Amino acid sequence: LGKSGKPNEYSLKLHSDDLAAVVAKVKSNKSNKKIVLVGWSYGSLISLTFMQNYPDIEVHGFISVGGIVDFKFDPSKELTSILTTLNNSDDFTTIVSVFTTIYENISAKPLSDELKSFMLGTTVLVSNGYRKTSIFVPTDDLSNFFSNLNIPTLNIIGAQD
Description:
about 10% strand; mainly alpha; AB_hydrolase_1; Rossmann fold; 8772_t:CDS:1; 3-stranded parallel sheet
């Protein structure tokens, strides 16, 4: 992930273009197949960007699991501060510290030590360039697009969903 040597080219648009290629391949082999997109975390943003950029490709349903669609963060909020620190640092200790904070606060119930360690280990292996240009860079606000979807949609984001 992010080891292509050209991480600055990664973007939600590029990921949505990749998803379009996959959907086109599925549809070329099985034209009657219905497309239901399932996105977890960043994958929800990719799915929404895909639907926004490719309105001619019919999507029959969307499931978002823990996806953030509104990037209009209040600068006074802790998350903005954490993401700013993350984006402005190449220091390994800082990156580990920030991701540890994120993973300790991203779910309604605490993550198991095993899952937290796995996520932290996977995340710190991502190149700094990819991390800075793809994962945590605020992008277009997709909340209006998400709110106006007219397909069956399940948004799982909290303990009561």
